[in-house]
Write a structure and sequence with these properties.
elongated; alpha+beta; 5 helices; 3 domains; three-stranded antiparallel β-sheet; 234 residues
Length: 234
């Protein structure tokens, strides 16, 4: 095999010299072939983003109730015989217990935290199986539909994923982004594959040559590999 490759390289070099000679005959002595220049394009490194959240995420705790209570000398709520706040109610934004929470809309489910001034409804898991952004919690928007997969994107301009990407760009990259924004990935994107995995199960008589259960990668990474294989024809 190495001898065959060496022979082919010699043939290619000979053909290149023949082509140069023919071009000189056709275009005259002034013909000068352009030297091959290597183009150094700064391609982005392949990185695998975390999977989205497939249910409405819980509110994120952003305050410390003990610290706010101590700083502002906040006293517990004095009940006046109205709608009683359930004893298991906890503010999702600061962690304050029901003693510091008001019934904010006459028993219709909304509460007001006296400590951090946040309003909220008790969190209830939903049957929503649509993807949510793992960085900001916003619901992803389906932007494209393909035969075997759908493409979702986070459109939140304040998403931490987008802010981190923007802050990592230098001045030249920002200038290029203003001219050609399609060259950069600044928003979280997720591909939801719609493959039928039944033919790949062990119960199927016509098993593929590749044993997928033994692949040391997640199904998400496998889906990305298949996507590149289809798109670029590797």
């Amino acid at each position: 095999m190495p001898q065959i490759i060496s022979h082919l390289l010699i043939v290619i070099q000979y053909q290149a010299e023949v082509i140069k000679a023919l071009c000189a005959l056709l275009f005259g002595k002034n013909f000068k072939p352009k030297p091959d220049k290597m183009t150094d394009k700064k391609y982005l490194k392949l990185s695998v983003d975390p999977l989205p959240i497939f249910e409405k995420p819980k509110p994120t705790k952003i305050y410390d109730c003990n610290e706010l209570i101590a700083q502002n000398n906040i006293k517990p709520v004095k009940s006046r015989g109205g709608n009683v706040v359930p004893s298991d109610t906890i503010c999702p934004y600061c962690g304050a217990t029901h003693e510091y929470i008001y019934d904010n809309n006459g028993g219709h489910g909304q509460f007001l935290c006296k400590v951090c001034k946040s309003t909220f409804f008790p969190f209830k898991p939903t049957k929503d199986d649509e993807p949510y952004c793992p960085f900001c919690g916003n619901k992803l928007v389906r932007i494209k539909e393909r035969k075997d997969f759908d493409i979702y994107r986070c459109n939140n301009r304040d998403c931490s994923f987008r802010k981190k990407k923007l802050s990592a760009m230098d001045s030249s990259q920002k200038a290029l982004y203003r001219q050609s924004p399609h060259l950069f990935k600044l928003r979280y994107i997720y591909r939801k594959f719609n493959f039928n995995f039944t033919p790949l199960s062990k119960e199927n008589d016509n098993l593929p040559l590749v044993d997928l259960p033994n692949i040391k990668a997640s199904p998400h990474v496998l889906g990305l590999i298949l996507t590149y294989r289809i798109n670029y024809g590797w």
